Amino acid sequence: MILHYLKIAWRNILKYKTQSIISVLGLAIGFTAFSFTLSWIRYEMGYDSHIPDADRIYRVLKVNKKEVGGVQHFLPEPLANYLADNYPEIEAATAVRLHTTDYEIGDKVRIPKCRHLVTDTSFFHVFYPETHVSYPPELPGDALILPQHSANILDIRQGDVGTYSDSLGGTLLDIVPDFPVTRTNVPFDVMGVRRMLKSGEQDCSWCRYFYSVYIRVHKNVDIASLAAKLDSIEVEDSMQGVMSYRLVSLRKVHYQYPQEKAKITFNHLKIFAGVALLVIFCALFNYLMLFVNRLKLRNRELALRKVNGASNAQLTSLLLCETGLIVLLSLFIGVVITEILYPLFVKLSEIEANESFFVQEIILYAGGFLSLSLIIALIPVGLFMKRSIRQNSQPDTNCFYGIKNGFTMVSLALQLIISVILIFCTGIFLYQFRHLNHSEIGFNRYRVSSFNSEVDLSKDEIKKIPGVEDVIYFDGEFLPRRVLPSFSHELETGEKIDMERFNIYEPSFFDFFSIRIVEGRNFHYGEKNVCLINKTAQKRLGFDDPIGQVIDNMTIIGVIPDLYIDSPLLPVQPAAYRLKEELVKETVLLTASGEIEHHKSEPIPLTSASSFSALKYTSFAYRYFPGQRLSTEKAINDLVRKNGGSTGYYYNMEDVYNEYTQSERYLLILLSIMTGVAILIAVFGIYSMITLSCNQRRKEIAIRKVNGARAKEILAMFFKQYAFITVLSCIVAFPVGALIMQRWLEQYTRRIALEWWLFAGVFLLVALIVFGSILFRVLKAAGENPAEVVKSE
Asked: Has residue 91 been placed in a domain?
């Protein structure tokens, strides 16, 4: 019986090839996008699910409004010990630092891309309390712990525990069982262990933000109460003032506050998953609308089957077989597309997971997709199947036609509403994206690179390189942004305004970046104790006339526009720009224990413009001529090698700024694809329905023509109906789209306004799509010979 049903279903699919292909492709593309995105979301949400009592482990983050997300990930090492000692709710606390590098013994790489975790003796108590490690009273400086898989690679045995190993390059404390190194916040191939650092044991230990801090709380602890206590902490002699911390569950920290910028953020993933689901519904509504309307053409067949003893359940099964076959075909095509796009997906998502993980996910989604589709199809198919049989035996054209048209109009309206929402949101998304990347940001970032070399160079040497247009001394605080020195200015009201301080080395800095000075003047060489401020600082300080005012022992001599050098999610900070009095080269070294050391050379005074270009330094910014980026980098590298160095380290300001909106760029591409698919589905649905309607009303059209109706009057007859659906769809879709996009735009410090012409433009585009879909088919019907039509009817 099922085989017979499948044969009939297959014949009907072949009979309506174009409709079937559009339905299958729409469902397949929607399923592929949805399965990839939901797999990615589930992967992110599955971090550290293997850790016992993971709900009792929290990451401690410092509140910092200058960072994306409002938090700072890395914290001082003594914080872990301070929390464990002062808060009885905390069972254990640990500080960890992770870096990935090749693990070398001698000149041989033993573990490529080794995850090297530096932590303290509380690590296992926090994360793996069932693992017991014995620590000696005095930890050696090179103490190491290996998981079993690394011990096997390094050929280390249990008998080596407690001894120094040349093949390991350290003292082995223990070999522990293997723990997952993917989908975890604390992976490790090699663990370096040190005693937990306490407050005051090292100078400025609270000023070094290198560690991630985790805590394990006791059972039944009120987390809200503990979080409230951590909202305001002041540690004596820490030099940090009042600190505010936030607790984030271990299972959520990776996707809510990622340390490394993802190509697509978690919030954008959720948006795209919702869009993919809308496209699936759009394709399903389109198929059901066409399928239900074809039932009228099959009413004789269904009635004959009923007369020959077929039950309603059997007829419903027959019709659902066709729906099920369409869904199965779409799933098959979707799986093929998934397999083709899998390498690209892995590259985009940067997920470390076996392909079997995604196979299992896709099988799960496919089963749910098939079941949900059949359930959704069951009601309209069963209802209209019964009415089609009744229509054949007891004609009641008005009733059937009205109900059928009602379902058709609702289906078309739903498809148009989804399409209009996607067109509107994608258009606003594109407009905002262009606004962020191409609008005025206060300075000229185009064709500018900064670099730092190992050797001293002069401006003259760099400016002589072919392709270099201009060059300045530049320490790189500007873009990409680094940690900046700051100071506070107290107003007469007692309020303290925190301000950032940028150091620049020459007055030509403003000309180089095309920064306007809106009030006052520029620096003079050798000028001391003066500064320029940005507009935000002027507003926050409340200076109507800032020229001559004094802040932080610096006299304000000018005002510049706000410079947008941060993510568009962050507001511009009040800033002062001062002329540095000397060049000081700073070398950053990483010690054997992993600490960072700073070494400064002798200062070079900057007193006048004379012979300024001949001064030797290591850091510069330069503007290159169009198309000369790579050639100038190569020439500078050659110059560095000629002077005894190896290479330079480059930052292209266009690339750095574009990275701020990298997630938006990828999401815009994906949204555009899905919007195109939704439009195609809606257009084909309208074209198919107008074709069916024209076929059903051929005789009516012919009679109207005989009675003098012209083509434009016949067009108006059809346009009126679809104009109503189009207007109604826009009336519903625009408020929904505006609400969604208004909330989305609120996260940006620079955003567009939802002006009237945006709505009008989308409406005109949708109207053109709808009426363009029906124009050709109606004109073709209106151009037929009435005599031939009446004769054939």
From this structure: yes
